[in-house]
Amino acid sequence: MFRTALRNVLAHKARLLMTVLAVTLGVAFVSGTLVFTDTLSKALSGQSAKSYEGVAVSVSSYGTARDENGVKEGDPGISQQVLDKVKAVKGVDTVSGRVSGFAGVGDENGKLIGTGWANQGTNYAPVKDGKDPRYAFTEGGGPASAGQIALDRETARKGAYKVGDKVRVATNGPVKEYTLTGVFTTDDGQVNAGGSMVLFDTPTAQALYLQPGFYRELSVSAKPGASADQLLADIKPLLGKNATAKTGAELAAEQAKAIEQQMSGMSTGLLIFAGISLFVGIFLIYNTFTMLVAQRTKELALLRAVGAARGQVIRSVLAEAGVVGVVSATIGLVSGIGLAIGMRGLMETAFDAKMPAGDLVVAPGTVVAAVLIGVVVTMIAALLPAWRTGRIPPVAAMGSAHLPATGKSLVLRNVFGGVLGLLGAGVTFLGVSQGSDGRYTVAAGGFFLMLGLIVLLPLLSKPVIAAVRPLLSRLFGVPGKLAAQNAVRNPRRTAVTAASLAIGLTLVTAMSVIGVSMGKAVDRMSTDKLKADYKVSMSGGIGSLDKSVAETLAKAPGIKAVSPQTAGYLKINDTFKSASGVNPATIGQLLNVEVVGGDLAALGRGEVAVAEKTARSAGLSAGSTVDVGYEDGTKAKLKVGAVYKDLDGLLSPYVLDDKVLSAHSEEPYIPEVYVKVAAGESKAGEKAVVDALGNNPAITVASRQDMRNEMGGLVNTALNIMYGLLGMALIISVLGVVNTLAMSVFERTQEIGMLRAVGLDRGRVKNMIRLESVVISLFGAVLGVAVGGFLAWAGGKTFSKSVPGYELVLPFDRIGVFVLLAAVVGVLAAMWPARSAARLNMLTAIKTE
Fold first, then answer.
1. What Pfam families does this protein map onto (predicted)?
2. Which of 194, 219, 672, 732 is the one with CA 20 to 30 A from 296?
3. Which pLDDT tens digit goes with each residue over 408-421?
């Protein structure tokens, strides 16, 4: 029977081609993801381990802390005295102190080089022979005094800097000019991720990032024969309570584990989309084997007639599926390895991320997973068609009649589908009622709803397609009428073919509706609530601006209003609440603050403004008092001077005068400063702000449109990634339509020959096949769009409260494009089957059984 199965595969290899492609694509996605993440994880772990080479013990300091009364405890870092004590420990060879923070380098046009969050500055710490073992210099040497720096090779190349050049460098304050003394290479992960590194001499770095005479960490190397564990035990007693020490081996292991977790998250995300592709592929495989079994009814009945048992016939069909699965898995694994190599190149070119060097990792688990997925998915999809072969009686060998679905099976299917659909809808509505806690419930409801839809598709196909039959007849005549009839002749086949498109478009539509709705909410926030012309922040949006930024802007010509947005917290009823520090005199000119009680001017009198929802839940109103605790432990009783409508994303629930909030914070955290200029939002206005800040490459000046693009761009980027990943599922859907039509043409060879004999010319035969394909595609698309819109509404309800101004927006233009693309898919998918049908010799076709 296995030889029979193998001969059948070879005999029907053309019909199984699309099935092989579908499984291959899914397996390639899975294996490519596993190979890429395994390779990247090993390379990053190797890079991390290399950075700890020669480090016996690493000491880190958390800096000063405050107790419950706000009293400072501990030093700001590791003092020079502690470093000297560590250096004197028996077995210690060298000790280098490190301190680091943000540093941005500008190119010749003043633009920041590298990714903002990964741009860093640190100190050059020579320990032996005047060299720092962390850096290998290709030109010049390390900085030896204030006013000197060294740059990593990639940053120097991008900025066209050479040793001796003047380089403008910014931290979180004003730009300063330094002399370049050297260019180096490094294995630092942030630099390889597209960032930059600036080396200062130690006193300069300490003054910039911590405090003179203190370090954030120490790297200790051991003398030959000294034990790292013993050194650790000897060093720990020398440290203060806010410092910790670990061996280099421990840190390397922790870093490797963290990398593994990060890669696991990335892998899981990609594998979800691979799973969707394979799920869609199941319908194609099921349809293919269903049609193959139906077309080979006489052949299979003959096998039964000559003595083959039911189990043998079933196993022969499953063996065919197994062969297809093994071939697909093998091709998919090889393709996946190529995909992983391509993903690596994409990361380096598209995202400007230098990937760490390392060998390609094809783990045994990846090979096993690829084979198992390819074979198991194919076998599962072919299981039901194979089981049906066991029901073919030997008497069927006397004719070519197929086994139609019984009325009982269709009734059971419709009942089961109805129950699943109702269950899915019920669970979805339950998730909506749960609010922000119901996201996973909505996802589960959506899954059951889609399953119910798939099961009910045969029932839905007849009325839906019947509704468009008159239109097809009127517009396209006989080919249109025949196409509509063919589309519902076998409801199960039509349903399975349409299901793959329905699944893909359900997901795409849901994501599009949510993405567009989020974008509109962001747009409303930037237009309705923001009156400032510009927002000033650190490049990359990470880190705090220096307090001098707001002071400088307030004094600059052409600038009307400035307010910092200082982020802090208040302790209220033993709970920490976020607070914003603003300029009371100008905040009303920069944000559209709608006061519902009291007066915003009360901020200038040292009173607090509270957001409406927070005030309602805390039982506060204008004139109330509230007991607060500040960051430094100071306690106060504040009067509520104003209650305002919530400005989520722009103001915290509690707002104070910036002078009051900052007075209780040693280092105020200022993520942004809002600015309004006399020239308005224009090139002249932007130039006034940029010039006032000294054309600082580390600072971004964003207009309101820039803010819209920045926030909306994140949504669009996420959507584009989703579209790309779901594209695999849609490609498999197209293959399914092609395969179904091609096999349907083969099945209807005699019928097409008769149509040609009675006068249907080749052109109208082609139109008939094309229209049938378009009808099936649009059927799946319309249902997918409808379910996707419903799930988008449900999903939006679960996070609408956390996104200010969120309202459901139906992007009819995008939905129209999706439906149009489905029609185009139908036309393209029908090209080969239509051409094959039109080229049939009518006499030969009539004689075909």
1. FtsX (PF02687), MacB_PCD (PF12704)
2. 732
3. 556 777 888 889 88
Separation CA 278–CA 731 (nearest Å): 12
Classify burial at 23, counting beta carbons within 10 Å of its beta carbon; exposed 0-12, middle 13-18, buried 19 or more.
buried
Helix (H) or strand (E) run with residue 390 in it: none
Q: Residue 761: CA atoms inside 13 Å, Cβ hemisphere, count?
A: 1
Say whether both 630 and 656 belong to one domain. yes
> What's the CA gap between 31 and 43, in Å, rounded?
18
Which residues touch 635 (CB under 8 Å, ≥6 apart)? 627, 628, 629
Q: Which of 368, 403, 438 marks a domain boundary?
A: 403
* Amino acid residing at 543: G
Looking at residue 12, its pLDDT comes to 55
Domain co-membership, 48 together with 62: no
Judgement on whether residues 217 and 266 belong to the same structural domain of the protein: no
Start-to-end CA span in the chain (Å): 25
- Alpha-carbon distance 555 to 557, whole Å? 7
Report how far residue 153's alpha carbon sits from residue 243's, in angstroms, rounded to the nearest whole number: 33
What DSSP assignment string belongs to 259-292? Answer: HHHHHHHHHHHHHHHHHHHHHHHHHHHHHHHHHH
Q: Which domain holds residue 549?
A: 530-704
Is the pLDDT score of 232 beyond 80?
A: yes
Number of domains the chain is built from = 3
Cα 34 to Cα 45, 218, 378: the distances in Å are 16, 37, 20
Q: Residue 559's closest CA among 545, 568, 549?
A: 549
In this structure, is residue 742 part of a structural domain? Answer: no
Q: What is the DSSP string of 746-792?
A: HHTHHHHHHHHHTT--HHHHHHHHHHHHHHHHHHHHHHHHHHHHHHH
User: Within this chain, do residues 130 and 15 fall inside the same structural domain, yes or no?
Assistant: no
Nearest to 141 by CA among 127, 151, 156: 151
